[in-house]
Amino acid sequence: MHSRASESPLPEPAHDTSDPLAAVISLLRPQTVLSKVISGAGRWSVRYDAHEDPGFCLMLEGSCFLDLDGIGSIKLEEGDFILLPATPGFTMASDLGIKPKLIKPTHTNELRHGTQSGPPTMRQLGGYFRFDRTNAQLVVSFLPSMIHIRRDEPGATRLRRVVELISEETAARRPGRDLILGRLVEVLLVEALRFRPAEAAGQEKGLLAGLTDSALARALRRMHDDVAHRWTVADLARTAGMSRASFAERFMRTVGVPPMEYLLEWRIAIAKDLLRRERVSLSEVAEMIGYQSASAFSTAFSRHAGCSPSEFARSMRIGSQPHSRGHPERRGVYRPFKNGA
């Protein structure tokens, strides 16, 4: 890259690119939080349809079963924490043998299932929030489908404190509420992602799985530290202290995509973030993420996002979705990353 000393400074990304986990959280930009106390007594079973928003649950007392589409069923006990980066359809019940009743989300402060009178046998604090749609699908695909942290596992106590603060702030409606909730959700996500159980980390694919592998983590951090560098697989393999072939195979097996595909998708995600936030020229964005020309950047962006950078930036300004062309799997945000949760 040529020197920028004589040029006006380019806008800096809004996230810490040197820390992959911090970069993921920053691109998600958590927004409004809704939470409520959910209780149950007697025999009951309810069913919710899937929705895009991430959800969380902290068990306050008692127990219940949670059966998530595509993931399976688990028993939740007092003190357990669940985070779903994208909420699938699910059944929650006192007994999974009961036929569930389909219900719709409500905005009440408390919800009761089963017997309406008498003390509850189960209480939980449940809720959901929203991610910025610009890169949500791509970034969520870096994450596990479900994070389940039991009360006696590392980080559970800290997570409980954060969830309780979210509940208090949601109910209080004081000045600065949305700002505080956004920060609290960022903390919630970081705590949940870095303290997830080791056995779960060993079963999943994606960025978090890569960060648990010390050799791959070195390469991932170097990519994030200098995304504009003209990286090759051989360069990254040397950073990881591995042969080129071993590194490429291990990266694919652990992260779920080849190294250069990961780098390409991350560059496009950063470009979308810049185009959404800043009025910058295509040549400036191209230089920041490692393309030699605006035309090369535009071609790559169009191929993966289904629209040109200019169309994308214009759509962000008017609040609509860009028209996507080409293969139907590449309409909107391209999703090559799959997790194994």
Automatic annotation (TrEMBL):
Asked whether the keyword NADP is assigned, the reply is no
Q: Supply the Gene3D superfamilies for this chain.
A: Homeodomain-like
Which intervals of the chain are annotated as region Disordered? 318-341
Superkingdom as given in the UniProt entry: Bacteria
**Which Gene Ontology MF annotations are present?**
DNA-binding transcription factor activity; sequence-specific DNA binding
Keyword list, A-Z: DNA-binding, Transcription, Transcription regulation
The answer, when asked if DNA-binding is one of the entry's keywords, is yes
Q: What is this protein called?
A: Transcriptional regulator, AraC family protein
